[in-house]
Amino acid sequence: MMHFFAAAGPHISIKAEEILNLGGVSITNSHMLGILGIIILVWLLFGARAVALGKKKPNFATRLITWTFEGLYGTVRQVIPDEKWAKKVAPVAITIFFFVIAQYWMGILPIVGPITVGEGTPLFRPFVADLNMTFALAIVTIVAAQIYAFKYMGFKGNMGRYFINPLKDPIMAFVGILELVAEFSRLLGLSFRLFGNVLAGEVLLIMIAYLTQFISPLALQPFYLFELFIGGIQAYIFFMLTVVFISLGLSHHGDEAHDDDHSPALNKTAENEALTS
């Protein structure tokens, strides 16, 4: 049975909750909102593409998407000066940005929370408030970084970052092990950072709505604006870290011909700025 009012007390759950089961496949409340968010995002991006091709007149949404895309691409070029590789990296990183910000903002819609099923289980939950989703995004980022590194340096060159003969250079062999551990720490850091921030925002809105009761539509307005801002910040941080992690693989090489094109110092500075944001 579906209800349009919240339960007697605030319903807070760390994990996504099952809404229905289709042939053994569990459909959770995060899937429900996630699918809706993907449909809206694809529709908006195709609209922006139509404007870019001159098939459609621009509106506020398409102008905002185009302006954001150009700004993000400029950021990619700053971190990865080589235009050839910047054009290869930009589609992945910018797609992740739009996906994260769209799914974050979907969690602010009024349908999230009040509509419940069963014993007070919310029908909708932000897709990025599901640890499985944020972990999947982190995996995409780390795998993409490895793929670009393989293409740039080859299999032997990329593996040479992690596995060094300890008899020839014991210090760098130890550094290689630390680099390997760092890859896994980045995976955990990316996933838990986004999940924690989204979950905290969701809990904040739930508690404000519960405490203010009938005046919650008015009381929640400043918090909605705050969450819009935080959503943009979190999406940008995830985007920036994706670009930086990929650029780190492109800055490790043994070919001196590329030394002028990639600056490890620049990459390290960008990573530090993103991590402290």
Using brief descriptors, characterize the structure shown:
68% helix; two-stranded antiparallel ribbon; 3-stranded antiparallel β-sheet; 277 residues; mainly alpha; single chain
Description:
The protein is mainly α and 277 residues long. It has one domain (2-275). It is 68% helix and 5% strand. The chain has helices at residues 29-52, 60-79, 83-106, 131-159, 170-212, 216-219, 221-251, 264-275; strands spanning 2-3, 18-22, 25-28, 116-117, 121-122. The strands form 2 sheets. It has a 3-stranded antiparallel beta sheet with strand order 1-4-5, with no helix packed on it. A two-stranded antiparallel sheet has the order 2-3. α5 (170-212) packs antiparallel against α7 (221-251). The longest helix is centred in the C-terminal third of the chain and has 43 residues, at 170-212. The N and C termini lie far apart (43 Å).
